[in-house]
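Record 1 of the preview.
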Amino acid sequence: MTETYHIPVLLKESVDGLNIRPDGIYVDVTFGGGGHSREILSRLSAEGHLYSFDQDADAEPAADDRQPAGNFTFVRSNFRYLKNWMRYYGVEHIDGLLADLGVSSHHFDDAERGFSFRFDAPLDMRMNKRAGLTAADIIATYTEQQLADVFYLYGELKQARRIAATICKSRQQQPIATTQQLMDVVEPYFHREREKKDLARLFQALRIEVNHEMDALREMLVAATGLLAEGGRLSVITYHSLEDRIVKNIMRAGNTDGHIEQDFYGRIESPFVLVNNKVITPDRDEQERNPRSRSAKLRIAEKKCQRIT
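->
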């Protein structure tokens, strides 16, 4: 496995959080460059097994040297289909699941993928290049209201409506097909002192919409909740408030909406108990080595044992 594709964040902390049993069954739903998967495999015996997911074809070569191993299976698929794939492999329960959410270093550094405003490239942003609308398709076909909703909900941009209106007006003149063309259109709404931060939010919003990231995350977490064995661990690294809220909700309340239910005695009826009440963040050394880690938050929860009543 190569680490040039992606530098793993909070590697030791996230894998330690799984409390790995050598003969257990584990899932890494965000394989990337294989950093977290390699660490998990180093702690498994031949009786254990790791299933690693990634929908991006560019991640597949990093898994090739592990495929012959009897305790490793690479699944080229979106992690939203976790439940279906585990059923396909005959897995009823897993002992732990790790997710390093967000975009890999590789996606930001590959100019042709259109994830970064550092390069002038086609507005693509698809994690899976085989299917789905591109960011350019969304810019070209969404209504003004749809675009405003995307920018406000997923980018938390205060100027969402005005940006959407300008895009709709500009695309009537000529197509907006590249990152630079999009930046030229929205530039008047971004003040110089906040330009990079707001552009990052705009690109984040489009990327989330292109890849249906929030829906996929909810589906995966619900599936993981059902699959985890008693005492199994959920270890999740988030990078922005939208996905972190969903992860916090599932761990605290047992659902992605955060709706708290209590039993007769006032005890919260969540299937999880928090392992770390306070989020784990990278130390200064890691942040300096890997700038992507600066916004990372790690949450860990354990599946409760059923109470005998």
